[in-house]
């Protein structure tokens, strides 16, 4: 069984490179870098940082966060249905198209995914691309999605504190009195590749208590899911490091609260079942 799980994990890792969101995120980082350089040249007649700066900061810390979250999801058996993953990818792309980096935060992408699945569940709505996976949904998906959102918010808070205040870009704005003022703009896009479980795979659960966060017996399959986290904050009147790290701590605290509450709800559901 151990060999089967190792092979399945390697195959799941390989599927990361087949996910279109990986390549869309690379193009997205290059584009926002281009827009930043264009703004810097307009304000100061020169670029401050290379247009590839956002791309170079996308993966290093994201890999660390992905490893930690992968350990948690594999150890606890956090199973996310394929329908949720597909809708979350579509929602993430739409959030990227809005060009509002803060909309790529898990609080928006995961939250909107939750409400879309809640609306579609047990409804007579035909969606050709997602119909088969939607037919496999049950109510246990809701607490698992909230738990995943909480974990991702904790990761976002960590990334903001660790990296959000580095290489902030200066920007000139016009104040309410019509005077030019200087502000700092921090914008980041982090890619977190993390293992999650897909219900309905070919592998049996490795432990009797596994998976913890799903209801009923099922077969599983591990897959690496690329999750994008966007962040933007504009700072004036204070040091960027202080303001940005304070924001990161708030995001991380929100993630902890959401995760704890979701686990309490999940425990209640298991106790009632």
Q: What does this entry show, briefly?
A:
55% of the residues lie in helices and 17% in strands. The chain contains 9 helices and 3 strands, in the order ααααααααβββα. It starts with a helix and ends with a helix.
Task: Summarize the structure in words.
The chain has 273 residues and is of the alpha+beta class. 55% of the residues lie in helices and 17% in strands. The chain has helices at residues 2-14, 20-44, 53-56, 60-76, 82-97, 106-120, 131-134, 141-164, 240-272, and strands at 169-174, 180-203, 220-235. Strands 1-2-3 form a three-stranded antiparallel beta sheet, sandwiched between helices. A hairpin with a 5-residue loop joins strand 1 and strand 2 (180-203). Helix 5 (82-97) packs across helix 6. It is globular and about 65 Å long. The two termini are 29 Å apart. The model is unreliable at 212-216 (pLDDT under 50).
């Amino acid at each position: 069984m151990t060999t089967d799980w190792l092979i399945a994990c390697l195959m799941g890792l390989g599927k990361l490179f087949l996910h279109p969101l990986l390549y869309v995120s690379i193009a997205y980082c290059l584009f926002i870098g281009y827009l930043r350089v264009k703004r810097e040249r307009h304000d100061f007649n020169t670029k401050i940082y290379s247009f590839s700066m956002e791309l170079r900061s996308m993966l290093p810390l994201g890999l660390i966060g992905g490893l930690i979250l992968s350990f948690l999801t594999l150890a606890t058996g956090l199973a996310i249905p394929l329908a949720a993953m597909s809708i979350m990818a579509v929602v993430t792309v739409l959030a990227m198209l809005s060009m509002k980096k803060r909309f790529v935060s898990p609080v928006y992408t995961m939250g909107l995914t939750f409400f879309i699945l809640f609306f579609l569940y047990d409804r007579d709505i035909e969606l050709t691309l997602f119909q088969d996976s939607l037919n496999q949904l049950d109510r246990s998906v809701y607490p698992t999605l909230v738990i995943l959102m909480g974990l991702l918010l904790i990761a976002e808070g960590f990334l903001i504190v660790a990296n959000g205040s580095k290489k902030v870009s200066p920007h000139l704005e016009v104040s309410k009195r019509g005077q030019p003022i200087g502000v700092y703009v921090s914008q980041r896009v982090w890619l977190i590749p993390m293992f999650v479980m897909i219900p309905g795979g070919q592998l049996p659960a490795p432990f009797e208590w596994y998976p913890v966060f799903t209801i009923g017996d099922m077969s599983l399959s591990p897959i690496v899911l690329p999750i994008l986290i966007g962040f933007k904050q504009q700072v004036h009147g204070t040091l960027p490091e202080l303001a940005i790290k304070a924001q990161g701590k708030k995001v991380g605290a929100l993630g902890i609260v959401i995760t704890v509450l979701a686990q309490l709800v999940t425990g209640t559901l298991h106790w009632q079942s």
